[in-house]
Each structure stands twice: as C-alpha cells, then as structure tokens.
Amino acid sequence: VFILAIESSCDDTAAAILLNDKVLSNVVANQLIHNQYGGVVPELASRAHQQNIVPVIDAALRNANIQKEQLSAIAFTQGPGLMGSLLVGSSFAKSIALALQVPLIAVNHMQAHVLAHFIDEEGYEKPTFPFLALTISGGHTQIIKVDDYFDMTVIGETTDDAVGEAFDKSAKILGLPYPGGPLIDKYAQLGNPKAFAFTKPKVPGLDFSFSGLKTAILYFIQKKKLENPNFVDENLNDICASIQHTIIEILMDKLKLAVKETGIKQIAIGGGVSANSGIRNTLKETENKYGWKTFIPKFEYTTDNAAMIGIVGYQKFLSQKFETSSVVSKARIQL
Ligand code: ATP
Ligand code: FE
C-alpha cells in the first residue's frame, strides 16, 4: 500500500509517502518566520501551512516517484497541536481522500512519535513489545509504557515545562537565540558538566518538573553577573555543559525508576530533544552499565515529520481503522 501522510500540528509543514512500512519520501518545510518572535506564533503558523502544503505534498510525490492516483490512503495528524495548524492539514487530507476515493486515516501525533521506531530502515533494529518510550520535545516530556501499537500508557510526564522548553528558556537566559536547545548542546560539548551545580527538582513518582530549574539558572546567572558582567561570555561552555548535565540527570533518574517499576529494559526515545548528543551518549552507556537496550531513530524521524504519521497510517490501514470526512481535529488528545 502507498500512503500519503500529512503532518501540520505545529510550525512544520510535512508530507511523506510510504510503501508499506518503508519511507519513499519525507519532506519538511520549516517555518523560520517564528524565530524572530522567540516562539511559535499560531496565527502565522497556520498561514504558512496554507502556503507550504501544496508544494510540500507535490515534492513528496515527486521524490517518491509516484502519481497521486497510486495512493491507497491518506493519513493526517488529528492532534494534539495548534488548532489552526491542524485544520490546514486535516482539510487538505479530507479533500484529497474524497477526490481520489481512498480511505482517510486520523493519527495521534504523540502515538506517532512513539511508533516512528517501526519505520523500516536498513540497519535499524526495532523495539519489541513491551518497551518504554521517552518522548522529549518542545511540547512534551513523557515516559510511556508501550504494550502494543495502540496500547500505550503514560506512566510519567511533566507537571510544568517540557524538556525542550527547559533547554530553550535556559538558552534565552544566556542570551542565545531561539530555539536554543541545539546551541546549548553545541557549547556543552566543549565545557565541563560539573563546573556548576543546579539543584534538581523533587517530584514524586515518574513525573517531571522543569520550571524550577529555569528559575534556579536565572538567579544563578543574575548573581554571577553582579560579580562579573562578562560571566556568561567567559563561561558559556561550562554553563551550557552544567545545564545539560542537570537536565540529563533529571531524565535518567526517572528512567531508572521506570525500569525498576516496570521491569522493562528496552528504552526508545523520540521527539526533537532526542537529537541532543549528551542524551544520546548517556543512553548508549546504559547498555553496558545497566544492560538496557536503547533505540534512537534517525534524526529526521525524531523531530516533527510526516513519515511517523505514515507508519501509524500503515498500521491503521492494516486494521482498517478509517474515518469519514466528519472527523474533527483536536488540540488535545490522550494517547
Ligand atoms: P511537540 O512535538 O511536543 O509538539 P515541538 O514540535 O516543539 O513539540 P520538536 O520539534 O520535536 O518539538 O522539538 C523541538 C525542541 O527540541 C526545541 O525545544 C529544541 O530546542 C529542542 N532541540 C532540538 N535539538 C536539540 C539538541 N541538540 N539539544 C537539546 N534540545 C534540542
Ligand atoms: Fe512533535
């Protein structure tokens, strides 16, 4: 089966073509317009989706070298996300499905981040059920117990900011441009992770909190700047390494607890923050250190993309989970 998948939940317009569980094309148009505002502006996002969606889908078809008449189904992101952005993708998906007389498949974006691991890639070993998924992005921080494709339970999540926000807000305090996560990663690689200590939040169970860390960093920087106005410039690498080290420790503490509580030692990560080199290295080390098995997908499948929507679409196609065109977009949906 050939599936056209459309993703438009936030600020990236994406389309992919899958042949069964293989990705033939995966196109993303990033909306750089938001960078100058220091965050995603919903109204600008939906307008940019409208401009991007036709060229992005055309490119996906062209790169896959197929005609739209060959498509077996259209999959789209139903939610969660920004309503105006979701509506552009869903309206478009509905129209194509109707015009081509093929099934329409609604996909939960967060399930897609988890199921991205089942995209068939040469040399990529897929997790087996049950496994734990750590989804870390600009909007989410969740530990999910995955018992089957559509049998997932959130066993821990953030009570305030997401990990991506912790990175971006810390970067902002340091005067770095948005989104600052990748920059913290870059400078951290040159710094000493133990140079400065930030207190870790005390949150019961498997839940996370990141807003306190941001405040701790803000006060720390303010205080240091009083003593030395050039403190940030002179210590940027060490500050970034220390912030990243603290964030990784917070994540690892909870993962260790999740492994202990569930007895599951397969850990799959997803979401834009899983691009972080420190997180990747630390996870890899757990394989020798604790006997865990870790799964880290290709970068293009961890950030928002349509290939992950397509793999869920394929699974739903196999079990004939189709929608009518009255299906509605949802800003919030549970797993
Ligand atoms: P969601 O998927 O929950 O809707 P989103 O679309 O904002 O949220 P993603 O695109 O998956 O999230 O991830 C973006 C986030 O990832 C940003 O906060 C960005 O700073 C962070 N990020 C990207 N690369 C890195 C990196 N190397 N180190 C740390 N953070 C990173
Ligand atoms: Fe996402």
Automatic annotation (TrEMBL):
The record lists substrate as bound by T135, I136, S137, G138, G139, D168, G181, D185, N276
Q: Which cofactor is essential here? A: Fe(2+)
- Positions bound to Fe cation: H109, H113, D304
The record's subcellular location field reads: Cytoplasm
The reaction(s) annotated as catalysed by this protein in its Swiss-Prot or TrEMBL entry are:
L-threonylcarbamoyladenylate + adenosine(37) in tRNA = N(6)-L-threonylcarbamoyladenosine(37) in tRNA + AMP + H(+)
The record, for Gene3D superfamilies, names: 3.30.420.40
Record's cofactor remark? Binds 1 Fe(2+) ion per subunit.
Q: Which UniProt keywords apply?
A: Acyltransferase, Cytoplasm, Iron, Metal-binding, Transferase, tRNA processing
Enumerate the InterPro entries for this protein: ATPase_NBD (IPR043129), Gcp-like_dom (IPR000905), KAE1/TsaD (IPR017861), Peptidase_M22_CS (IPR017860), TsaD (IPR022450)
Q: Name one Pfam family in it.
A: TsaD
Q: Using the record for this protein, list the coiled-coil segments as residue ranges, or answer none.
A: none
Q: Name one GO biological process term.
A: tRNA threonylcarbamoyladenosine modification
Q: Name one GO molecular function term.
A: tRNA N(6)-L-threonylcarbamoyladenine synthase activity
Q: Name one GO cellular component term.
A: cytoplasm
Its EC number is: 2.3.1.234
| Gcp-like domain boundaries | 22-310
Described by its record, this protein's role is as follows: Required for the formation of a threonylcarbamoyl group on adenosine at position 37 (t(6)A37) in tRNAs that read codons beginning with adenine. Is involved in the transfer of the threonylcarbamoyl moiety of threonylcarbamoyl-AMP (TC-AMP) to the N6 group of A37, together with TsaE and TsaB. TsaD likely plays a direct catalytic role in this reaction.
Similarity remark: Belongs to the KAE1 / TsaD family.
Q: State the protein's name.
A: tRNA N6-adenosine threonylcarbamoyltransferase
What organism, scientifically named, is this protein from? Answer: Flavobacterium yafengii
The encoding gene: tsaD
